Amino acid sequence: MLLATLLLPYPALAAKNILVFGDSLSAGYGIARDAAWVSLLQQELRQNNSPYAVMNASISGETTSGGLRRIGKALQEHQPKIVIIELGANDGLRGSTIGDTEKNLGAIIEQSRKANAKIVLLGIQIPPNYGLDYARQFRMLYPMLAKRYKVALVPFMLEGIPAEQFQADNLHPNAKAQAQILRNVERVLKPLL
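Given the sequence above, the corresponding structure tokens read:
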């Protein structure tokens, strides 16, 4: 039995990995790294003696096109059981076409599925800088993708965060808001663990 265990590749011996694949909202922009919701998730899993380990591959400023270029390597490196996809906000703030964002997110979901990972998609909403119609289409993109690909959805990851818990840019939540983000994510994530 010991010999068989030694012959297994390293990832098979490692903890079950959760890959968080996002932008500044998951990278902890403007706050201490250990205060960000992804770190709080890892702390909670550890306290509960969970076999899951969290790998944060989030990069501030990341777009869905950048994420699409990176997802293959991230999946290969971390071999996750679950992928939490939190991308699109920067596409929306830059006025990227809804079609391009949809195509990129769909491809990220498909690659994650081919890697045999369960998927959680975190919905984002954007201010109406490019008009109410664009903001509405953007908001509807996430439920549509979740339905099409039959993946778990957090409709709006920043749900329930009051205005005073945002940083001065009014885009990034502060440290006090991170526990609420974690609660929003965990409602959907916990049944998959």
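Residues 1-13 have pLDDT under 50 and may be disordered. Try to locate this feature in the token string yourself.
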